[in-house]
Amino acid sequence: MSELCSLCERRRRTGDQLCEFHATALRNLHDGYRAWSKGFGDLAEETYYSKLEKRPEIGHAVREVMRYVRRRQMFA
C-alpha cells in the first residue's frame, strides 16, 4: 500500500488514507455538516455538498475532500 495521501503527494497519516492537510479538511467538512444540519434542520449530506460547492470561499482542499467522499459513497 502506498504511503501517500489518496488525494496528493503528501505522506499519509498512520492508519489513514489522507495526509494531515486533507484529514483536517475532512474534519472541517464533517464539522460544517453537523453545524449546517443543526441550523437548517435535517439536511441530507448530498444537499450540504451541493450548497457548499456553490460557495466561492471554500478552499481547494475541502473541494478535493468533498469529491473524494462522494466518490467513496458511490462505491460503498
Overall description:
The chain is mainly α and 76 residues long. Helices cover 59% and strands 0% of the residues. The protein has one domain (20-74). It has helices at 20-40, 45-53, 60-74. The radius of gyration is 13 Å and the shape is elongated. The model has no long low-confidence stretch (mean pLDDT 91).
Quick overview of this protein structure:
The protein has 76 residues and is an all-alpha fold. It has helices at residues 20-40, 45-53, 60-74.
| Approximate strand percentage | under 5%
Radius of gyration: 13 Å
How many separate domains make up the residues?
1
Kindly state the number of beta strands. 0
Low-confidence stretches: none
What gross morphology would you assign?
elongated
Sheet with most strands: none
Mean pLDDT: 91
Order of helices and strands: HHH
Helix content: 55-70%
Annotation field: number of helices: 3
Q: Report the end-to-end length measured between terminal Cα atoms.
A: 20 Å
Going by helix content, strand content and strand pairing, the class is mainly alpha
List keywords for this structure.
mainly alpha; 76 residues; single chain; 3 helices; elongated
How do the helices and strands line up, and which of them pair or pack?
Elements: H1 20-40, H2 45-53, H3 60-74
